[in-house]
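Progress report, Aim 2. The chain analyzed during this reporting quarter is listed below.
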Amino acid sequence: MKLRLVIVGLVTVAALGGGCDAPQTTGPQQPRQPTAIDVADVTELEPGTPRFKVQSHGKFRAGFDNNVREILLITDLDTGKTYLGITGVGISELRSESHTTTSVVPDGQGGLDVRTETTTETKER
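Predicted C-alpha cells for the chain:
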C-alpha cells in the first residue's frame, strides 16, 4: 500500500511539472543599464529657480549589508519648511520651538532687573 502511494505521488509530481528547475540562461547576463525618465519640472518658484535646497551633512554606514547612508537637510523654499532625510530610510519634517523665560532679580542697588531669555530648539515631527 505504501509503495502505491509513493508511486502515485511521484507520477503526480512528474505530471505537474516535475519540480524546481533552474531557469535556462544562454550565457553571462549583462548588467542592467539605468534608464533616465523625463519628468516635467513642477517644483519651480520662478522659471530657472529650484524649489528645494538640499544640504549634505555627512555619510555613515548602516543597515543591511552595511550600506552607505547620507544625512540630508532639505528646505522647501516655497513653504519654508525644513526636512531631515536619510537615504534609504526616509524623510521627516523638522520644526522649531521657541521658549521665552522672564525673571525678575534684584539689581544690587535696591531695584529690580527684568531679564528675558529666549531659546529655540529644533525637533523632529
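The chain has a mean pLDDT of 75. Residues 49 and 100 are 37 Å apart (CA to CA). These observations will guide the mutagenesis work planned for the next reporting period.
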